[in-house]
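Field reference: sequence -> structure
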Amino acid sequence: MAGRESTLSGMILSFAPAANLGAAPLMLALLATLAYAAAALPARAPSRLLAPALAVAWWLHAMLLALDVGGWGRAEPGARLGFGPVLSLTVWLVLAVYEVESRFLLLPGVRRVLALHGAAGVLLAWAFPGEVRPTSNSWAPVHWVLGVASYALVGAAVLHATMLDSAERRLRLRGGQPAMPVSDLSPAPAAMGLPLLRLERLTFRFVEAGFGVLTLALVLGVATASQWRWDHKTVFSLLGWAVLAALLAGRRWQGWRGRRATRWLYVGAVLLLLAYVGSRFVFEVLLGRASS
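Structure field:
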């Protein structure tokens, strides 16, 4: 019985994230989570409060990332890395894309989903804070930022692809309509406030941008690596890059559209997620140790 109690105490202490956060980051994490929760209220709530709540949550999340993950004001040099901080930063960047995009396009059905993901990102970074790692060389921060930016751009593409799939599914269920997106000369149905063809183009703009940034991250990683290693991060990153390259090639030369194209996107996104976030989750949570 005593052994079981000591084991339970050790587990609680090992997952006590409050010890890893100062008072200011902890307060920011709580406030950001509450703001995201307010932004995730149903659409019947007063709409004039929902958009400002999401914007406030986004800014609080930004300050939290700067203080706790970026290390601003922390005596110990280096950024805090781990699957929790990286997921939190990725979600924040996707929200940044939404905040810019919503100024030009109506995306009413996306707010609640992003608010819930934002709250989850803050809580994950708080529960699994990772570890502070000093930079190995001057190019390491650039490589890391490019990698996370590619995650965010591909994540934005996945978000738009799910909207595209949902719109096409509703179109098929209506019957008597084509299952695939209609031609540019035909009237396109609306999806989340966007014409279907416009949403499709926007989805693959994000795929192209994410692929370009991922390519830069991989080239920089190869050019600055002191020793090449075929580890899980390298293999999954290259596999994800290859799937996205095949998707863009298939769309350009074979005309891939609809569910065939989005399935390739989902596979590429999962591979990229496994490249860093998945491997760090295995090491930090399942194995209980830091990865190399």
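Note: Strands lie at 79-81, 131-133, 190-191, 194-195.
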